[in-house]
Amino acid sequence: MPPLHALLIAAIIAVPVAGLAQQKDEHSSHHGAAAGTAAPLIDGEVRRIDKEAKKLTIKHGPITNLDMPAMTMVFQVQDPAMLDQVKVGETIKFVAEKTGGAFTVTRIEKP
Length: 111
Known about the structure:
Largest sheet: 5 strands, mixed, barrel
Number of helices: 1
Number of strands: 5
Radius of gyration: 22 Å
Strand content: 35-45%
Order of helices and strands: HEEEEE
C-alpha cells in the first residue's frame, strides 16, 4: 500500500483536473452552437441597409451562439446579394456568426 502522503498528493492533483473537465463541458453547453452544430435562427427586424459598406443594421433577439443579448446593431453580410433580399422594416430570421473578428450575417430567411 502506498504511503499516506502519496495518496494525498494524488488526490490533490486529481480534484482540480476533474473540475477543469467539468468546467469545459459546462462552458461548451453554455455557448449554444458547439462545433459541428448549426447556429440558431434569430428573429430580427431590418433597420438599415448599407449596400456600399455591405452591412445590415438589425434589431434582434438574443443571439445565444455569440452570448449576445437582444439589441440593435450593425452586421456585415457574408454575401452582398443578401442585401437585395431584404427591405427596411421587414421582419427576418437570420444566422449570425463571428467570422474574421466581425459579426457577420451568414444566412437570411423570411418568416
